[in-house]
Each structure stands twice: as C-alpha cells, then as structure tokens.
Design brief:
This protein has 3 helices and 5 strands, in the order ααβββαββ. The protein is an alpha+beta fold and 119 residues long. A 5-stranded mixed β-barrel has the order 1-2-3-5-4. The chain starts with a helix and ends with a strand.
C-alpha cells in the first residue's frame, strides 16, 4: 500500500511540474511555441541556451538569456515580462541541450528585447 502511495505522489509531482513549466496563460492570446503567429514581423533566431538568469523579484521571468545559434554566434537577450515560457522551462532546454527560438526587437541602445520564446 505505501509503495503505491509513493508512486502516485511521484506521478502527481511530475504532472504538476510539467504544468508549471509550460504555462502560457499569462500571455494573452498566445499559444505555447507559436511565435510565428504571434510575432510574424519580428526577427527571430534559434539556438542552444548557454545561460539564463531569473529576475530577482519574479523568478519565472528572465533578466538575461544567452543563446548560441548554428553559426556559433552568441545572442544576448533581456526581457521585460512574460515571454511564453518560464525560466524553469528554459533551464530544462539548457540541461537537455535542445534549441529554442527567440522572437525579439532591437532597441535604440542596440540591446535585444525578447518578446517570445518558443520550443
């Protein structure tokens, strides 16, 4: 009986973690991973995550996201809010070595502001 309770708790914890990592509900009218529809006119780049730093006041959002594209170029982004995925989800991509695509704007100071990050 105790063995089954432990297994059930483990499965429930995995489900909860998956739901939290992939929650796109804070972005109005957004579908997880659909930057092509949401931001068709913004430039985007795909690459592997080298670093992601959470904002101190809200660890779901990032201060810095550094990715390297297929040509070896490094891209350094910041965000000013929800970009479609949490820092935890981005860290999963970093650990697994899977790519993400970032839709972004180039600001007047030359910095890159991420608007959406998709799988």
């Amino acid at each position: 009986m105790i063995k089954h309770v432990g297994s059930i708790c483990y499965i429930l914890a995995l489900l909860l973690a998956s739901m939290l990592a992939c929650d796109a509900s804070e972005a109005p009218n957004s579908g997880h991973g659909d930057g092509y529809t949401l931001y068709p006119n913004l430039p985007h780049v795909t690459g592997h995550i080298d670093r992601v730093d959470a904002q101190p006041d809200n660890p779901r959002y990032f201060n810095a996201l550094l990715i390297t594209d297929a040509d070896g170029l490094q891209w350094d982004f910041r965000s000013d809010g929800w970009v479609g995925v949490s820092v935890g989800h981005l860290k999963d991509h970093q650990i697994q070595g899977t790519t993400v695509t970032v839709w972004y704007e180039t600001l007047s100071d030359g910095s890159l502001l991420a608007r959406f990050v998709g799988d």
